[in-house]
């Protein structure tokens, strides 16, 4: 049997878009948003809280500019998702938790590690003065490290 012709069926699958809702907490005005994927800038414009972007599943970098700051989130988006930016600020230290860890090396050198955690609902913006412990007369008597 000889075929005089044949047909080829091409199926083009378009990646279905997912809905990305941008939510700006503690902020009611518009903001500038830039969205980057591995291929570069894919969205740039003004948005308001609750606006929805339709994007194909991929890894993205969101840069939101508002209140004279730029907030950055890097996310892998595979399904509908809410991207939340908290634009609220305080200079109150009420919800800050400060922990200081000391690491003593064999040669007597001491590293101080400071961990500051914010347990509040607002971003902290201000100055912190953390008194460091004074160490004097330190001797390493024995070591089993």
TrEMBL record:
Domain of life of the organism encoding this protein: Archaea
Record's protein name: Uncharacterized protein
Gene source species: Archaeoglobus fulgidus
């Amino acid at each position: 049997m000889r075929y005089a012709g044949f047909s080829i069926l091409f199926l083009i699958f378009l990646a279905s878009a997912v809905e990305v809702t941008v939510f700006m907490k503690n902020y009611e005005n518009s903001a500038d948003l830039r969205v980057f994927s591995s291929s570069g800038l894919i969205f740039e414009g003004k948005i308001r809280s609750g606006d929805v972007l339709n994007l194909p599943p991929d890894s993205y970098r969101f840069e939101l500019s508002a209140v004279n700051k730029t907030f950055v989130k890097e996310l892998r988006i595979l399904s509908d998702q809410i991207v939340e930016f908290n634009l609220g600020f305080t200079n109150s230290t009420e919800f800050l938790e400060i922990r200081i860890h000391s690491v003593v090396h064999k040669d007597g050198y001491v590293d101080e590690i400071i961990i500051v955690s914010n347990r509040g609902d607002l971003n902290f913006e201000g100055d912190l003065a953390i008194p460091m412990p004074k160490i004097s007369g330190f001797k390493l008597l024995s070591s089993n490290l």
